[in-house]
Protein: Alanine racemase
Amino acid sequence: MTHLQWQHITGPRVLVDRFRAQRNIQRMQQKAIQAGVQLRPHFKTHQSVEIGRWFREAGTHAIAVSSVRMAQQFESAGWRDIMLAIPLNPRELSAINQLAGNCSLTLTIESADALDTIRRLSQDVNLMIEIDAGYGRTGIDWQQQRLISDLANQALQLPQVRQVGLLLHAGNSYQASGDSAIQQVHEESLQRLAEVKAHIAEPAQSQLFVSAGDTPTCSRMQSFPGVDEIRPGNYVFYDLQQQHIGACDWDDIALTLACPVIARYPERNEVVVHAGAVHLSKDYLLSKDRYEGRPCYGQVMQISEHGWHGKPVDGAFVHGLSQEHGKVRMPPALIEQTRLGDLLVIAPAHSCLTMAAMHDFMIIQGTR
Amino acid sequence: MTHLQWQHITGPRVLVDRFRAQRNIQRMQQKAIQAGVQLRPHFKTHQSVEIGRWFREAGTHAIAVSSVRMAQQFESAGWRDIMLAIPLNPRELSAINQLAGNCSLTLTIESADALDTIRRLSQDVNLMIEIDAGYGRTGIDWQQQRLISDLANQALQLPQVRQVGLLLHAGNSYQASGDSAIQQVHEESLQRLAEVKAHIAEPAQSQLFVSAGDTPTCSRMQSFPGVDEIRPGNYVFYDLQQQHIGACDWDDIALTLACPVIARYPERNEVVVHAGAVHLSKDYLLSKDRYEGRPCYGQVMQISEHGWHGKPVDGAFVHGLSQEHGKVRMPPALIEQTRLGDLLVIAPAHSCLTMAAMHDFMIIQGTR
Structure:
């Protein structure tokens, strides 16, 4: 392993491999075309106007975000079809009204109470009703079919509402591991969604739009029956959690954190890097087989001339984080070669949170 | 419980109770005076020039930080005695040189290798040698007394080095609970530090400066034998972790996150707020007795006219976080009263990471 010689990297720095990210973007676009669904990537993963352009170049015109702040950011950057894929916050009425005046805005609700806010809008919007098909975070329980039908038809009567739809995020796919487990979540979710749809009364029924999406199912499954639009986000970068689920290969991971070694402890098979909870986030991966039973916040990748390549370095992972320090388990031979100030390139457990924590990043060409 | 009527809070917002924060600042200043030690607060907790001024008004002139970026920020704001309390990163030589030209800069090292970087400085610095007295993160093991003595005397010979000292962060106090456990960590650490000091050869021995500090011991202990300077940070805000350790009372917690309710689930005793991992961070508190065996990312506080008061609401805590969503366990009676868009005021498990994630905050007067 030779160490990255980029002398202009002084502290912890996010690296984005453009080749891999663009390949991930194009691959998902191709899949959507083949499956006959629209692709609405979730931009919370990168929150970057510049990376947003890579999606546009690949044919994306509709996006999802999870805060009004992100919607404002991308509306300012010229995006004209934006979905707020998080339940409506009534306190943001004024900002939402302004957004809806500037672009085609889709809001998410999950109760009749939220219609009080919709009634106060002076602009038109599309309205998604979030369905919980087993994940247990947000959405109306899929078994409440009468409630969902009534809400869809109530919503459709509001003069502010152009179109009504159903929104699903099957986040329970993050608990899966391997294609058959992902497939099981996928089929169960879509079957439940179909059942909900079948019970929606007219006039909402015949004009209902269905949006579903999470990175594991969108990455591994090929068809999306009953769905008009898929909405994955993390696939632009992927990360250790996605690799563990089986949603991607090592070569698909397009985001890492370059961080300098600031202390060496050969006697305990450890180095400490300047990269802590404020850089990697405290999200971790637990695995029965890997990481000696410890939480893993990131894995050390093998550095190549243009970035990183192949699988992670065996036995080299971040097992402890404080605010600015990261404790990295390393094999003795590697510690022997490592000097103070050397850079380690670490693939984070969860790339969305690393990107959100760091805001800033460096684009590298990557290896073809 | 009446809900906060501040209509200008639309999304997740950090609230800083000025009365409590200033009381925390003054109390620690008083303790340092009574104990006959200098106080060098660690500014990584707030990273705010404005809150920095509250410390200055209370008599602080020396500060610690944990990144060159923070050192630059506070140097620009007029601070002239800054310690980088993290092992030296050789890649930042140029920025360090510049800082050392503008203020009295203290660096931290923990190996002879780091002296190669010190030799390349064109400005003078103070140099702390970090000692590990049992925490196991960074620092030279306290039992390596010969190594430490040699390093101190080697360092002192460099023309760039004004003064040499020992630096301790007894972060193992974060595993303690209650005064006697905190006292045990405190006494053991200082005893080990004294032993290290006693074995340092002249000329370093007689001019050695000793800096120690972590919020639990500095908050609960009254004397700091053998120590010239204490270096706590988190005490300006405190948080659930500190309360759990016994380092503070509920009334000392000076930072919360106000966040809107965006979904209600009476059937599962839960609401969802717009406040996720990018706001609260994924740091949590585990407790055998509290939180039904779940991780707790934050607790819901009782809202008062000028902020929040008293103890947290019984049985109301954040037990799950995704990027922008927080799942809050709540008693049925409270959910009954809670409407979409109501604000919850949540004390985070770890206030430093919440502040680092949010950057921005709102100062409230607080209740006297």
